[in-house]
Amino acid sequence: MTSHSPDAAENKPPILNSTEIDELLSMTLIANLATIEDDGSIHLLPMWFLRIGNNIYIPTSHHTHKYRNLLARPRASVMIDISRAGLNLKGVLIRGRVELVRGEKAQQINRSIHLKYVTSDALNDPDVSSYLSKGDDVTVNVHMDRLISWNLSDSKAGQALGVGGWFRPLDG
Q1: Which residues, other chains included, contact 142 with Cβ-Cβ below 8 Å and sequence gap of 6+?
Q2: 25 lies in some domain
Q3: Rounded to whole angstroms, how far apart are CA atoms 65 and 69?
Q4: Tens of pLDDT, residues 96-117
Q5: Position 172 in a domain
Q6: How far is CA 107 from CA 58, 63, 129, 136, in A?
Q7: How many domains does the chain have?
Q8: Residue predicted with more confidence, 62 or 129
Q9: What is the CATH number of the domain that holds 41?
Q10: What average pLDDT does the segment 126-135 reach?
Q11: Residue 133 maps to a domain
Q12: Mean of the per-residue pLDDT values for the chain?
């Protein structure tokens, strides 16, 4: 006798609705930026970000490896998530083409990104200012060409783990 597996759609994890996506992308979280290396492997880094419209903006320097990767291959993936113990996991994966913004426009955007993460007093400190304001001379503009979201905390398994307390705490 053949056993039937559950419908695949029934097992798909819940996704975030557009309001939840907007809320997540407005939070002060760390984005993970993935660029493609010459050999096809992935270069993955934690980054500050700011969403403006349908774009994710990330500050960087023209001296960085990610900058060189994006010059050669102007596409990237960005993951922004909230990951907690159990299956309390939700986030978005953005894939898109990249534009590199330079000059005064990059400085203005990067300042807005910096102020999302640090106070204006911090930007007046010579050590912080030297690193951020002078170092971040380019803005990576990732167009949200494709967006995938997940919300495992709202899945049946995620809810069961939460109610039952059957998960181990994360370190850190």
Answers
A1: 33, 55, 56, 57, 58, 76, 78, 94, 96, 97, 98
A2: yes
A3: 6
A4: 999 999 999 999 999 999 999 9
A5: no
A6: 12, 16, 12, 8
A7: 1
A8: 62
A9: 2.30.110.10
A10: 86
A11: yes
A12: 92
